[in-house]
Design goal:
The structure holds 2 protein chains of 2 kinds.
Chain A (H helix, E strand, L loop, with lengths): L14 H29 L6 H9 L2 H17 L2 H30 L7 H28 L1
Chain B lengths: L2 H6 L3 H9 L1 H21 L5 H8 L1 H19 L2 H30 L7 H27 L1
Helix pairs in contact in B: 2-5, 3-5, 6-7
Classes of the chains: A mainly alpha, B mainly alpha.
C-alpha cells in the first residue's frame, strides 16, 4: 500500500515551487549580470592587484549561493514525496557526475585524455544540474506515472 | 548523553552499511594502486583500448559502492531519509559551488589547477561534504 501523500502533477506550480522559481530567475539574472561585469572589470584591473582580481573573479559565485539557499528552502517546504523525488534525483546526479569525472580523471592520469583544470572545475556544477534535471524527470515519472 | 556523540552515532542500518562498504573501499584502494603501477609499466607497450580498460577498472568498485548505498537507502526509515536529504544536498551543492568558484579563478588566470587531480577529487569531496551535511541534519533534526 502506498503510504506517501498524493503529489501534485508535475506541471502544477505549488507555492514552494513558485517561490523557488522566482529566486531561480532572480539569481540567474544576477549571475549573468555579475559574470559580464566581472569579466569587464577584470580587463581594467592591473595584474598586481591579486586580491581585487580574486574578489572580482568570485563575484558570480554570490548569486549561486543565493540559489543554493533558495533550493534548500524549497526542499524544507516540499511535501514528503517531493522530498524523496528530490533526494533520489540529487543522489543520482551526484553518482552519475561523480563517476563521470572519476572516469575522466582516470583516463587523464593514464594519458588518454588531456584535462584543463579550469574547464573541469567550471563544468562540475552545470553537469550536476543537467544530470539532476534528467534524473528528476525519470524519478518523477516512476512515482507519478 | 553527549549531544555531539548523538550527532555522529551510527544507527544499526548505518552500521550495517558501513561494514558492508569496507570491502569495495579496500578493493578500490588496492585496484587503484595496481592500475597506477600497471599503466606506468606498460604505457608504451599495450594498445590504447587496453590502457583505457585498465584505467577504468577502479570505477567498478564505485558502482559496487553505490549499489550498497541504494540498498541502505531502501532500509532507511523516514528520519534517516531526511538526514540523507541533508547529506546529499550539502554534498552536491557545496562541492558544486566550490568547484565553480575555483573554476572562475582559474578561468581568469588567478590560480592554476591540475585538471586530472580536480576530476579525481570530485567524488571524495562530495563524500566528505555529504558526511558534514548528515551531521548538520542530525543537529537540526536529532
Amino acid at each position: 500500500m502506498n503510504v506517501l501523500p498524493a503529489s501534485p502533477p508535475c506541471n502544477e506550480l505549488t507555492p514552494p515551487i513558485r517561490r523557488y522559481l522566482r529566486w531561480l530567475g532572480i539569481s540567474m539574472s544576477m549571475y549573468a549580470t555579475l559574470l559580464v561585469a566581472s569579466m569587464f572589470a577584470l580587463r581594467h584591473v592591473s595584474a598586481d592587484g591579486l586580491v581585487l582580481r580574486g574578489a572580482l573573479g568570485l563575484l558570480p559565485v554570490l548569486p549561486l549561493l543565493l540559489l543554493v539557499w533558495a533550493f534548500a528552502r524549497y526542499l524544507r517546504e516540499c511535501d514528503e514525496m517531493q522530498q524523496e523525488i528530490e533526494l533520489r534525483s540529487l543522489a543520482a546526479a551526484a553518482a552519475v557526475t561523480g563517476i563521470g569525472f572519476l572516469i575522466a580523471g582516470f583516463l587523464g592520469s593514464a594519458g588518454v585524455l588531456t584535462l584543463k583544470g579550469d574547464l573541469v572545475a567550471i563544468l562540475v556544477l552545470p553537469a550536476l544540474f543537467g544530470t539532476y534535471g534528467i534524473a528528476k524527470a525519470v524519478v518523477h515519472r516512476s512515482y507519478v506515472g | 548523553m553527549n549531544p555531539f556523540l548523538d550527532m555522529v552515532r551510527f544507527t544499526p542500518n548505518e552500521k550495517r552499511y558501513y561494514q558492508r562498504s569496507m570491502a569495495p573501499t579496500l578493493v578500490n584502494i588496492l585496484l587503484t594502486v595496481a592500475v597506477v603501477l600497471v599503466i606506468e609499466q606498460f604505457r608504451g607497450d599495450w594498445p590504447f583500448a587496453a590502457l583505457v580498460a585498465v584505467a577504468l577498472l577502479p570505477v567498478l568498485t564505485i558502482v559496487w559502492f553505490f549499489k550498497l548505498y541504494i540498498d541502505y537507502f531502501r532500509d532507511c526509515d523516514e528520519w534517516e531519509k531526511l538526514i540523507e536529504v541533508y547529506g546529499i544536498c550539502v554534498g552536491v551543492l557545496l562541492v558544486g559551488t566550490m568547484y565553480f568558484a575555483f573554476g572562475l579563478l582559474a578561468l581568469f588566470e588567478l590560480v592554476v589547477l591540475d585538471g586530472v587531480w580536480f576530476a579525481l577529487m570530485m567524488l571524495p569531496a562530495i563524500s566528505i561534504a555529504y558526511v558534514l551535511g548528515k551531521i548538520i541534519g542530525r543537529w537540526r533534526h536529532g
